[in-house]
Amino acid sequence: MKYILNKTPIKTTNKDAVNEFIIDTLFDDYKDTSKYNINTSYKESISSFESKIGISFNKCKNIEIDITKDTDLECDILDTLIDTVTLNIKDKSKVNIIYKSSKKIDHHLKLVINGNNDSIINIINLTDIESRNLIAIEAYVSSNITVNLIDLGGSLRVYNYYAEVIDGINTFNNIYLTKNDELDLNYYIKLINPKCEGYINSKGILNNTSKKNFKGTIDFVSGCKDAIGREEEKVIMLSNDAKNKSLPILLCGEEDVCGAHSSSVGGIDLEKLFYLESRGMDSIDAKKEIILGEFNEILDYLPNKDYILNIIRERL
């Protein structure tokens, strides 16, 4: 049976095969075997599951947290995990969510962010490189919210980001690494009211035989006068066998807005590489430092930046 996932908000040409993502098999049934560590009080329950990626399950772990301070959530996934995490952000906070595994696992996450104060949410995927991850994030923004997705694990990764900006600024940043992996990225920000802002920034590395689709949409709906929306993608290709498809979309239902998009695909900057090699650094280490330099802007949001940097070096 084929499952059609991550559909774009509007269809483009079918020839490029980027409007949707198709997989042949879904995950196993829900198993409550994963270990959570959360440094604040929360409510846990069992419920049904449905996300904007386009699949549903009868059963999932449901965790709801009222955020009034900086909060850490760490989950060690032992088998199959299907979970919904809801963050009700009541005060300015930084939330760090880390998913790890020591073996190949299946994980489907739905993260719902109800944000009404200046906050930063970091989602860090450190699962095994052979894992399968389907992660859907929904953000409902009435103030300034920054969401950072740091994606360092999994052979199959399907990501969906959906945001409605009622007021304020929503920034979504994403970095990813690949070896021989398959990625489908579908990011959407809807700007609803006057003077609100939305930004999508995606940076990644494609290596070996990896395949990646990027679909980014800024939607200016009627009534969002003087709104600003931009999306930017940068892809570094480390292999001639890797395949990249990029589909940036601007939808405009309002006249007085400012929208822009850009997509850059290419190899390692040879001038930077020559500079580092001329100062005694070997080629492999020089390439790693150039890549880390591209990621630094987003990694600066993380409290455990050095730890994440070391993992990136190991997995490059």
Count of discrete alpha- or pi-helical segments spanning 4 or more residues: 3
Sheet with the most strands? Answer: 9 strands, mixed
In which order are the strands of the major sheet placed? 3-6-8-10-12-14-16-18-20
- Secondary structure tally: strands: 20
Query: What is the mean predicted local confidence, pLDDT?
Result: 91
Low-confidence stretches: none
Structural class: mainly beta
Order of helices and strands: EEEEEEEEEEEEEEEEEEEEHHH
Can you tell me the overall shape?
Answer: globular
- How large a portion of the residues is in β-strands, by DSSP E? over 45%
Write down the oligomeric state: single chain
Termini separation comes to 34 Å
Please state the CA-atom Rg, rounded to the nearest Å: 19 Å
How many domains is the backbone divided into?
2
Which range best describes the helical content: under 10%, 10-25%, 25-40%, 40-55%, 55-70% or over 70%?
Answer: 10-25%
